[in-house]
Design brief:
Layout lengths: L2 H18 L2 H22 L4 H10 L9 H14 L6 E6 L2 E6 L14 H15 L8 E5 L17 H18 L7 E5 L10 H5 L5 H6 L4 H7 L2 E6 L2
Parallel strand pairs: 3-4
Antiparallel strand pairs: 1-2, 2-5, 3-5
Length: about 240
Amino acid sequence: MSKENVEQQIDEALGSIKEEQSWLLTYADMMTLLFAFFVLLFSMSTIDPVKISQLQDGMGDQPELKSFNAITEEFEDILEELDIEEQAKVSRDPRGVTLEIDGDICFQSGSTTLHEKLVQVLDLAAQKVLADAGDPRLITVEGHTDSDPIPKALTNIFPTNWELSSARASKVVNYLIDIGVNSGKLQASGYADRWPANLSWYDVRSGKVNDSVIMENNKTESQKKLNRRIKIVFSKN
């Protein structure tokens, strides 16, 4: 093959490449123009100090919330300080940290009067955990009863255990409000006898609790005392 033929083939190959990639020149020109356009927009813009301040306020330092480990430890310290580790316990469930106080230091059967020991627990819990003004997380107070029917003399006040358990939870909530806990993060909830003390959150939510289960968990006076309890749930939200 002559030198002239080789040079001709090279020129043809280069020409073909230039044709196939000619769009790159147009694309590069367009990107350059877009970049120049956005630089021009930025140079003509003005910064609104008010909006910047609002943005900074919205993104400002949020209060550091206590960890659930810290809350658990503080609840446990309360039980140790009052020497009631045998009558109360701290646990976790999917909702958060739970302080559960056995019925024998909460209420008498059919009553909403707070025992003195329950008052002491609530006072310390408010002081150490519940009354933290910088913590907006929900605190649910749950009332639970045994399965004994409401005495006839009280049915005009509490027709069923649903009303009694709700009244007990509300009594605790009102007391917490009186000693300085923010009412906006308190919630009262009554479970009647439908959550025996020996059953877990999952047992209740999965439908395992029925009349026979409730009967089995209320055979003895000691079981009933455990069931007449208050639970304070420090929620994740």
